[in-house]
Design a protein that fits this description.
Elements: E1 10-15, E2 27-33, E3 39-50, E4 53-57, H1 67-70, E5 73-74, E6 78-86
Antiparallel strand pairs: 1-6, 2-3, 2-6, 3-4, 4-5
Keywords: Hydrolase
InterPro entries: LexA/Signal_pep-like_sf, Pept_S26A_signal_pept_1_CS, Peptidase_S26
GO molecular function, one term: serine-type endopeptidase activity
């Protein structure tokens, strides 16, 4: 999700809300299955919601792997939505 979120940023997520439509435009944490039988976490933005299907995209259009590659995700893959970000200031 660079340039919005970068290495070293601390992100706090809260659980999935009852109303999935409230995620539209929000940054969410998703759990995707890899082909090797393990899961991995990704941070994406919910762009479009159609029932239980959510179209997600990263903020870096040129290099993000997201719904443009996989298609829409299921709401079952969403772990939570971003509540707070802590970014360290520049070192002096």
């Amino acid at each position: 999700m660079a340039p919005t979120y970068n290495e070293g940023d601390w992100l706090l997520f809260i659980g999935l809300p009852a109303n999935v439509k409230s995620l539209l435009g929000k940054v969410i944490l998703i759990q995707r299955a890899s082909g090797a039988g393990s899961d991995f976490l990704q941070i994406k933005r919910a762009i479009r919601i159609d029932g239980a299907n959510i179209w997600v995209e990263g903020d870096n259009k040129e290099s993000s792997t997201d719904s443009r590659s996989w298609g829409a995700i299921s709401s079952d893959e969403i772990i939570g939505k971003l509540l707070f970000r802590y970014r360290k200031g520049p070192r002096r």
